[in-house]
TrEMBL record:
NCBIfam families linked to this entry: dnaG (TIGR01391)
Entry's EC annotation: 2.7.7.101
Subunit architecture: Monomer. Interacts with DnaB.
Domain of life: Bacteria
Region (Disordered): 600-622
Keywords attached to this entry: DNA replication, DNA-binding, DNA-directed RNA polymerase, Magnesium, Metal-binding, Nucleotidyltransferase, Primosome, Transcription, Transferase, Zinc, Zinc-finger
Catalytic activity: ssDNA + n NTP = ssDNA/pppN(pN)n-1 hybrid + (n-1) diphosphate
Organism: Tabrizicola oligotrophica
Domain text: Contains an N-terminal zinc-binding domain, a central core domain that contains the primase activity, and a C-terminal DnaB-binding domain.
Name of the protein in question: DNA primase
Gene Ontology cellular component terms for the protein in this record: cytoplasm; DNA-directed RNA polymerase complex; primosome complex
Cofactors required: Zn(2+)
Length: 641
């Protein structure tokens, strides 16, 4: 929804930032000056003992001199409560006693429906908890006792029981006046194929409530009591309030515990999380019946900078860990990593804690390995590299993985670690990699120091300017059409942008992807006004079709896809030439000629798309691609005598 002009300014004026922050921190009164609104505390965003977190009440901004977190009251609520922008506005407005502006009727209807479904889910949780106390649940209580869960622990985790009947919950909710369509909408019941009344989805199962980051019940997980049941664990279906790929089990308590310094542990299932938390590892979460998704990975990084993936030591657990590696590589950035703790002997955390206690689990966590180690093991364990061909195959595979890392600095450090491990594997003697091969092992995209002539060349200057212009058009198009941010989110995250201004705008676009045009403009103007002005002043941006035609989303989609494809193709071509020039010592061969011709071909295709595939951006594509072709014609890889 769009907020009226001045609403946010008045909201910030009415609410003291120190009162908002004060709920989450303990002020250092020796360092603070309350009369001047100059407050200091240990930072709530990272573990520390000193008071490096500064709140300036008069200006309404906070800044941490340790982790560099900064923002205003809205930013603080968003980051600490894991809320969206409008949700944070609503929280702050309630505190200030300001009524929210009238919402769009359709948006209000959707919000009311979601509130109803959450209320229905809460009623269902209460009913299932009551059923666990009945005689029908005797076997379930015995099972929980064998798993080491006392009645008090069962209450802490709100564990319930679904009787083995088709309409138990449905009839109980009907007596409370809850309509069948709400039970179906919440995923608690399913429609009958025979036209009868809806039937219960969960039957004969121990019930685990699933809550979101705000503590609201959004779905259920159920463990079958019948060992012959086809599905040992069953989660509720996707609904208006539950997206299993965007939520984590035990999210809110784990976030609070991680904020107090506990390591974030990612386990496989409900019982693992419960066992970990009951043993003192309170910052434990689990995905919800699926492999970890990129949204869940980003969610974990919002909770902790370096989650520990604690997976079962069996074959399935190892496969799950390797899938996480493939998912995480393109998303890595400075300060955001993963470590992997593989449990011994095929055990899960619950097994290990019961058999050897919390100290054994702590030892496993302390021995957790960085992701680069697991990547290396995956590519090398059980394989013999006794020929040049096998070694070359390993090199090719590793380069392919490293090229997927978007951050140039992280990519370079991964390359250094892999190079070290490679030398250890192949030995320091006769199997040592020749110097030019060592340079070539550095993954594509890693910055290499340019020569003086290269710095002054038309190619270097022209391509840098051209790529910066393309980045500007992409960012400006998304600012004009924020509804397209989610569609191009992955591509936008992978872009290796030039300059801090472009990176700052990208961060804000990704953080506020759900805002409308007016709200997004307000946020960008407030948090990156200079960068926004510089971007929109560019003549190339002002004439871009998506910026000039803000009502045409289809045209914007086509132009964004074209610009991103061109940028990717140009950079790939440049990297291919750079690799070739650095790899050779003056002798051209057919392999190099083929690589350069393919690079030119890829760039030519990007610059000359068919009319069916893209919208005409009005550029001289022949001139752009001609630079690379001229390099090939002049055989720039040969040393000049």
């Amino acid at each position: 929804m769009s907020l009226p002009p001045g609403f946010l300014d008045e909201l910030r004026t009415r609410v003291s930032l120190s009162s908002v922050v004060g709920r989450k921190v303990t002020w250092d009164m020796r360092k603070s000056n309350q009369g001047k609104g100059d407050m200091w505390a240990p930072c709530p965003f990272h573990q520390e003992k000193s008071a490096s977190f500064h709140v300036d009440d008069r200006k309404g901004y906070y800044y941490c001199f340790g982790c560099h977190a900064k923002g205003d009251a809205l930013t603080f609520i968003k980051e600490t409560e894991n809320l969206g922008f409008m949700e944070a506005v609503e929280v702050l407005a309630r505190e200030a006693g300001m009524p929210m502006p009238a919402r769009d009727p359709k948006a209000a209807e959707v919000a009311d429906r979601r509130s109803q479904l959450i209320a229905v889910m809460e009623e269902a949780v209460k009913w299932f908890r009551l059923q666990l106390k009945t005689s029908a649940a005797a076997e379930a209580r015995a099972y929980l006792a064998r798993r080491g869960l006392s009645p008090a622990a069962q209450d802490r985790w709100e564990i319930g029981f679904a009787p083995d009947g088709w309409h138990g919950l449905q009839l109980a909710m009907k007596q409370k006046g809850i309509a069948d369509d709400l039970l179906i909408g919440a995923g608690l019941c399913a429609k009958s194929d025979k036209g009868g009344e809806p039937y219960d989805r969960f039957r004969g199962r121990i019930i685990f409530p699933i809550r979101d980051g705000r503590g609201r019940a959004i779905s259920l997980g159920g463990r079958a009591m019948d060992p012959k049941d086809n599905a040992k664990y069953l989660n509720g279906p996707e609904t208006e309030i539950f997206d299993k790929g965007r939520n984590l089990y035990n999210h809110a308590p784990a976030r609070e515990a991680a904020g107090k310094g506990k390591p974030l542990i990612v386990a496989e299932g409900y019982m693992d999380v419960i066992a970990l938390a009951e043993a003192g590892f309170t910052a434990a979460v689990a995905p919800l019946g699926t492999a970890v998704t990129d949204e869940q990975l980003r969610l974990m990084w919002r909770i902790h900078d370096e989650p520990v993936i604690a997976l079962d030591g069996d074959a399935a657990g190892i496969r799950a860990a390797l899938r996480v590696i493939d998912l995480a590589l393109p998303l890595l950035e400075a300060g955001k990593g993963l470590r992997f703790a593989v449990l011994p002997g095929g055990q899960d955390p619950d097994d290990l804690i019961k058999a050897q206690g919390a100290a054994a689990m702590q030892a496993v966590l302390e021995a957790a390995q960085p992701m680069v180690s697991l990547l290396w093991k995956r590519e090398t364990e059980g394989r013999v590299f006794d020929s040049p061909e096998r070694k070359a195959t390993l090199d090719k595979s590793l380069r392919a993985h490293l090229r997927r890392i978007a951050d140039p600095s992280i990519r370079a450090h991964y390359g250094e670690d892999i190079k070290r491990l490679r030398l250890e594997l192949f030995g320091q003697g006769g199997a040592r990699v020749p110097a030019f091969r060592q340079r070539n092992f550095t993954p594509k995209g890693t910055p290499l120091p340019p020569t003086a002539s290269a710095r002054q060349s038309l190619l270097a200057q022209g391509q840098a300017v051209e790529e910066a212009l393309r980045e500007a058009v992409i960012l400006a198009s998304l600012i004009a059409h924020p509804a397209l941010i989610h569609r191009f989110e992955s591509a936008l995250e992978r872009l290796d942008l030039t300059g801090e201004d472009h990176n700052a705008l990208r961060r804000l676009l990704l953080s506020h992807a759900d805002e409308d045009v007016a709200s997004l403009q307000d946020i960008l103007r407030r948090e990156a006004g200079d960068a926004l002005d510089a971007l929109m002043r560019r003549p190339h941006v002002q004439i871009a079709p998506p910026v000039r035609n803000r009502a045409d989303a289809e045209l914007a989609t086509l132009c964004l896809a074209e610009e991103m494809a061109k940028l990717d193709a140009h950079r790939a071509a440049r990297r291919e030439v750079e690799d070739a020039v650095h790899d050779l010592t003056g002798l051209a061969d057919e392999g190099l000629t083929w690589r350069l011709s393919k690079a030119a071909e890829a760039r030519h295709k990007a610059d000359h798309p068919s009319r069916e595939d893209s919208a005409d951006m009005g550029e001289d594509r022949a001139a752009l691609s001609g630079v690379l072709q001229a390099m090939i014609d002049e055989k720039v890889w040969e040393k000049k005598r």
